[in-house]
Amino acid sequence: MPNLTVERFMTPAPHTVGHDQTLATAHQLMRQYGIRHLPVLEAGKVVGMVSQRDLYLIESLQDVDPNAVQVNEAMTTELYCVEPRTPLRELVAEMVEHKRGSAVVVERDNAIGIFTTTDALEALYAVLEPQ
Q1: Roughly how many angstroms between the first and final C-alpha of the chain, as a whole number?
Q2: What is the domain partition of the chain in residue ranges?
Q3: pLDDT digit string (tens) for the chain, length 131 residues
Q4: How far apart are CA 111 and CA 13, in angstroms?
Q5: What is the DSSP string of 51-99?
Q6: Is 19 within 8 Å of 75 (Cβ atoms)?
Q7: Residue 48's beta-bridge partner residues?
Q8: Pairing state of beta strands 37-42 and 17-18?
Q9: Which of 10, 24, 82, 114 has its Cα between 20 and 30 A from that of 95?
Q10: Rounded distance, CA 86 to CA 44, Å?
């Protein structure tokens, strides 16, 4: 299956959270949609990523109120962004080498998708499935 691209396996139109929303709001979105990663937006632009693990880490600190602490306190700003036509092989190599759990798929500075390890497993399944 040559020429596979991120676009084929990404999760389109990802759910997002505002940078100034609370950790409790991010948790609620993750539970509601059964997801573990949320791109974080500020004025419509992706400025970070927050994962379920990030939320649990911050909330484990003493005196942290999930209803008061904002997402920008828990998010990572070191994003890995790719375009939809990025070769899947290139994306997976980057995720493996740098132990990344997700990538934001962008087109003209807009987040149009997300690619997570779950999407990578779905791609692997598709490749291994008998034709």
Answers
A1: 11
A2: 6-128
A3: 568 899 999 999 889 999 999 999 999 999 999 999 999 999 888 999 999 988 888 888 888 888 888 999 999 998 899 999 999 999 999 999 999 889 999 988 788 999 999 999 998 898 888 66
A4: 8
A5: EHHHHHHHHTSTT--TTTSBGGGT-B----EE-TTSBHHHHHHHHHHHT
A6: yes
A7: 40
A8: parallel
A9: 24
A10: 23
CB 88 within 8 A of CB 5: yes
Tokens 């005196």 sit on residue: 63
Beta bridge partners of 18: 41
6-128 has which CATH code?
3.10.580.10
Dihedral over alpha carbons 122, 77, 106, 35 (to 10 degrees): 40
Calculate the CA 17 to chain-centre distance. 11
Q: What is the pLDDT of residue 1?
A: 52
Closest C-alpha to 17, from 9, 7, 26: 26
Residues 6 or more apart whose Cβ sits within 8 Å of residue 67: 22, 23, 24
